[in-house]
């Protein structure tokens, strides 16, 4: 009798799914698999659009009660693969062979270069055509090590860009002049800046946590990454490849570095319901964050200045100044002089009116 149970087709699989992963590459693997799944689902939507010609969100791609994993839009730049192609062309990033002159520095330090998932999508030439596990392990670890520690200049540039008025990802903007006092110490400047924030952005001090804020315990960054890896494994095996849940339980095991490394994450088939329900929501949040960091479409140094031709033509066609413009300053000065010269007369009239 075959080693596979009746009704179960033989499958080609990595042992224990993530057992070959090193602890240092958990995040990279999660980002790679999540972004690949986004592309897969977007292709399903495109295919459905070609066949049904719907302009509204496509029905039938998500079962009732499930969270829709991707946001439907017909704008070309909202599709992940299209956004990547546009930006690679704008930044002159040529596809290179794995391990051969891999790009490690980008001019002007763009915002996407600081975000691990966006950097992976832009710079890893195998994405999204190849599986993560098809990339040689040594090559994966080498890339991760290169970007694990940014130099001080890159870190300062990334932090400064967060409050840059030209940063397109910022929503609420208050541009103020700030005095840098050489006689004051750093703490005095920090206290003064905090005071400005309390005046102009009090919502930052009302307990609202930023999306990238890290929690403690099970809500830590590493714990969330492991949860995402388990969720994407459950989704891939149960929903995409349609494996029986009994086999899925045996395949999803804790990776290296975990205290339960090699042991199954889920004990019963019912426990798979939770990661399968949470995966679309986590994928949606990941997609939103990824596209928010894949900006701008062109380097700032190559953005062309605004074209003022139409404005110059309009001014040339209407040389006569309109009423109330700054060119009437001479008439205004004459009017002020006339009033100033009549000041004594006005005071005299007021005095006489009181006497009467």
Secondary-structure element sequence?
Answer: HHHHHHHHHHHHH
Shape: globular
How many strands, which pairing sense, and closed or not: the largest β-sheet? none
Task: Report the span from N to C terminus.
Answer: 125 Å
Average pLDDT metric: 74
Can you offer a commentary on this structure?
By secondary structure, the protein is mostly helical. It has 2 domains: 23-302, no CATH class; 310-355. Helices cover 48% and strands 0% of the residues. It contains 13 helices and no strands. It has helices at 26-52, 80-90, 111-114, 116-123, 137-148, 152-162, 186-200, 221-240, 245-251, 273-293, 309-317, 329-341, 343-355. α1 crosses α4 and α1 (26-52) packs across α8 (221-240). The model is unreliable at 1-15, 54-61 and 210-218 (pLDDT under 50).
Comma- or semicolon-separated keywords:
single chain, 356 residues, mainly alpha, 13 helices, 48% helix, disordered N terminus
Short description:
This protein is 48% helix and 0% strand. By secondary structure, the chain is mainly alpha-helical.
Q: What's the SSE blueprint?
A:
Layout: H1 26-52, H2 80-90, H3 111-114, H4 116-123, H5 137-148, H6 152-162, H7 186-200, H8 221-240, H9 245-251, H10 273-293, H11 309-317, H12 329-341, H13 343-355
Helix pairs in contact: 1-4, 1-8, 8-10
